[in-house]
Amino acid sequence: MTLTEAATLLERLQRELRKVIVGQDAVVAEVLIAFLAGGHCLLRGVPGLAKTLIIKTLADAVHLKFSRIQFTPDLMPSDILGTEVIEEDRTNGARVIRFLPGPIFANIILADEINRTPPKTQSALLEAMQEYQVTIGGQRYALDRPLFVLATQNPIEQEGTYPLPEAQLDRFMLNVVIGYPTAADERVILAQTTSATEHVASPVADGTDIEGARLLVREVVAADNVVDYASRLVRATRPGSSEEAPDFVQQWVRWGAGPRAGQALLLAGKARAVLQGRPAVSLEDIRAVAPPVLRHRVLVNFQAEADGIDAEAVVARLLEAVPARTRS
């Protein structure tokens, strides 16, 4: 697939998404960046902001298998991965064990309200998201490509929820925050969703197209100074162990981002470049994807909480403190 073909494909996808999703252009772009880069995405926002609708619309716009998992406190790992059952052959009475695949055996997976299930069940996704396989009863089962996990999370309701472990959070390439629509967009939403006309996205791509675009992303050129900037940004988030960390990081951050964050910065930056039809990733691409890449990988300490500082504020200050270009 050429750069022009990939850019055209993404333009068609965006057009189909806009048939259903009003506004939220930055959110849609970030979801497509994660999809194109081969990562997974965590969507965080209050109820009613179209988190689930964005994911379902993306599934409608591609010829891929879609499954939805509604996470609840009583959900078990086998409800996600699948289970083994014993069947009896009626002809000879022999009993055999057969594996029944769960909803994880799909291409686009909506993990709705992922923080409503205990860590035991949340961890069932770890192997699938990182290694594209699941292990049941000592037997490994490969998952189809592409595999795109999109999880939703409500940040304001804490009763009956379970915080995602850091290892689980790190598996998500981007943590996308959805805000309220503008006044103009909200008027369009109200008019569009209360009429008799139904707006539906049509499929414009298949698995081969998506995999071709993902391979193209990895061929996008990243100059040495861009790689250096991504590395310095990640290393600046680590207190104590890094000389590059600014004073406010030493004061407010408990744990910083790991090497996977640097990989996510570069891949997401490359995907953003392809989305805009450019053959090379720029410093601006890295700066643009840094908030969704780092906001869930920077853990603040009690001092930050006392000062009213969250990870979002730390990342914003890092983008100001870490120079894009080093002095020669």
Structure description:
- Strands 3-6-9-1-10 form a 5-stranded parallel beta sheet. Strands 2-11 form a two-stranded parallel sheet.
- The chain has 328 residues and is α/β, with parallel strands linked by helices.
- The relative contact order is 0.16.
- Helix content is 45%, strand content 18%.
- The protein starts with a helix and ends in a 7-residue tail after the last helix.
- It is built from 15 helices and 15 strands.
- The mean pLDDT is 85.
What's the total helix number? 15
Low-confidence stretches: none
Radius of gyration: 21 Å
Number of strands: 15
| Lateral strand order in the biggest sheet | 3-6-9-1-10
* Distance N to C terminus: 38 Å
Category from helices, strands and their pairing: alpha/beta
Order of helices and strands: HHEHEEHEEEHHEEEHEHEHEHHEHEHEHH
CATH class category label of the largest domain: Alpha Beta
Q: Architecture of the largest domain in CATH?
A: 3-Layer(aba) Sandwich
| Sheet with most strands | 5 strands, parallel
CATH topology of the largest domain: Rossmann fold
How much of the residues is beta strand, in percent? 15-25%
Helix content: 40-55%
Mean pLDDT: 85
CATH superfamily of the largest domain, by name, is P-loop containing nucleotide triphosphate hydrolases
Give the overall silhouette: globular
What is the domain total for the residues?
2
